Each structure stands twice: as C-alpha cells, then as structure tokens.
Amino acid sequence: MRTPREEGFYMPAEWHPHVACWMAWPSNEEAYSGAPLGSSAGLRNAKLSYADVARAIARFEPVHMLVNAEDLEEARELCGPSIQLRTAEIDDGWLRDSGPSFLIDAAGRTAGVSWVFNGWGNKYRHEKDDRIARTLLEEEGYTCFSCPLVQEGGGIHVDGDGTVLVTESCQLNANRNPGLSKGEVTRYLIDYLGVSNVIWLNGGVENDETDGHVDGQACFIRPGVVLAAASSDPDSPDYEVLQDNLEILRRSTDAHGRPLEIIEMEMPYKVLEDGTPVAGYYVNFYFANGAIILPAFGFPKEDLEAREFFTRTFPEREVVQLPTHDISFGGGNIHCITQQQPAPLGGPDAR
After folding, report:
1. Cβ-based burial of 93 (10 A; exposed 0-12, middle 13-18, buried ≥19)
2. DSSP state, 335?
3. Span 28-68, pLDDT tens digits
4. Range of the structural domain that residue 221 is part of
5. Residue 226 phi/psi, 5° resolution?
6. 300 φ, ψ to 5°?
7. Tens digits of per-residue pLDDT, 87-101?
8. Where are the beta strands (DSSP E) in 38-117?
9. Domain total for the chain?
10. Does residue 4 belong to any structural domain of this protein?
11. Radius of gyration of the chain measured on its C-alpha atoms
C-alpha cells in the first residue's frame, strides 16, 4: 500500500477547522493509582473531569465519545445530551494516543493513520486500544493507513505546513522502537504525516509515564510560532530539559527554512502536601472551533496567568479554562484525551 504522502495526504494544523472531536471514556483504574485519594476515587474524579471537557468542547463542535458497553449508562448520566456516545471496545480514555491521526488532501478526502499502540512502552494493557484507530476509521468509511511505527498522537505536533515536533525520549525509546534508527523513524514520520521537516526535542521530563510526549512541552500555535514550556526555577526537575528544548528550537527552522518564533510559557512544578508532584502542563490544551480549552491545576497565580496569556494570544477565540488536575493524575491532560477530526478541503467530505 502506498503511504499517505505518496497519496497526497497530510496532517493539518490543529487550528484548522474541525468537523468533530473524538474522545474515549476512562476505563482503567490502575492508571490512577497515584491519585491522592486512591485509584477508585481517582478514576471517578477523572470521569467527572472528562465529562466537563467534553461538554465544554461540545459548545463549539460535535463531540463523539467512545464508551465500553458496560459504561454507557454512567457516561450518559455524567456527559449529558450534548455528547454523542458510541459503543466501542477500549482499554482506557487516552484517545489522542490510541486513536487515529486524521489526514486530509487537496481533493477533499479524509483518511487516517493507525499507528502501533503498545500502552506507552507496555506500561498498561493495550490490546483493545491498539485496534481502535483501525476500527474507527473503517466504521467511518475513511482510508486507514496502517504504520508499523510504535507511536502515540501525543508524541507529535504538526504545523500543517511541512513541519512536525517530536521528542527523542519518546520516539527513540527502547520500549517502543528498539530496532529503528533516528533516520528510520524520521522517514516514517515524513511518509505518514505528509511533512518534510522533523524537529527533534530532547523530552524526558520527570514523572511522565509517556516518556516525554511533545504535547506537554511544545506545540505550534500559528505557522512558524511555537509555544514552549519553560521553567525559571533551577530547582525544578524539568529545568534543564526545558532549557535544552528552547535551545534546539532557537536553532531550528521550519520546512521553508524560516527561523521559528518561540513563545515561552512557565510550567510550574509543585509538590502537594501528600507528596504528589504536579506539573502545570498548560501547553496541553485543545484547539476547538473558535475556542481554546485550557487546563487549570489549582495553582491560583499560575492558572490566572495562563488564562490571561491565552486570552491575549488568541483574541479571536473564547478561552474556557477547566480544573483538570484529576485527569493529570492518570498521566496526561486535555490534549491527551482529545483528537480533532479536521474539516476536508474544498467542501463536503468526499471520503
């Protein structure tokens, strides 16, 4: 089978208009073993936060929530009528990572990539989630490009104009693609995302079960403009990694050879009274149609500053900030639990 690049497909930027947002209902209690009140309460609180995120996004675009059959009643009660529930066999709710990376082409077609999903390096069960991208694309009638690369959607961030951001700590980790070189991984990213330029950050932040997904560290917010997490606290365990990322970005250019504009955003790191570490991953937000869905971490000063920053940076969008620290105990945040489906080019979806 030819690759998406050979077929003229590419992954557009996340600010490209969406036809829908896809999510999946959290299902794995084990993932919340680090929550302050224990795994059972952690999962219940995460479900409440997932429902809050889904309803917030549904104000701006349709939201499809994949749900195990035994969880339908609970999901319907918590999400309400604005969310479209779809029965599916899933292991957990991190659809950014397990779901398809949607692609479009100039002819108005939609397709998607099904990466190999191995539970973030075999940390959690993943057999159902490894199938969900293919299943979703087949049910929707879209071409599915199956890529042999072990990869998660949170490990990539594209500008829609030829460039993708990734991290070495994730993409080159021995628990994902031990037999592949950096050059071979680069080739897969180029062929399956329709890009021509791969920017490799170091990654490797502390207490991150994803092994350093880029969507907690840096993202494109406009063509040529990168929002990068930074730390002004030398005592933060992530200080040096984030400084290294900034240096790499300053030396990098986009696919057209243009230097990047880098906007730094403080990523606070605090330890709760019970010893639980919490990092403020404000970069892990969701572009909705006409809106920014932004996390809050219970840090009064930093949460307010983040909201003010996004309001200034995106005056044309409504900024909706939600408390999501309960989601973060499971290993991610708003961007990690959402997957945008881009609108096709040139009118109705030709499929």
Report:
1. buried
2. G
3. 999 988 777 788 999 999 999 999 999 999 999 999 999 99
4. 18-342
5. -115, 130
6. -50, -50
7. 999 999 999 999 999
8. 63-67, 84-87, 101-104, 110-116
9. 1
10. no
11. 19
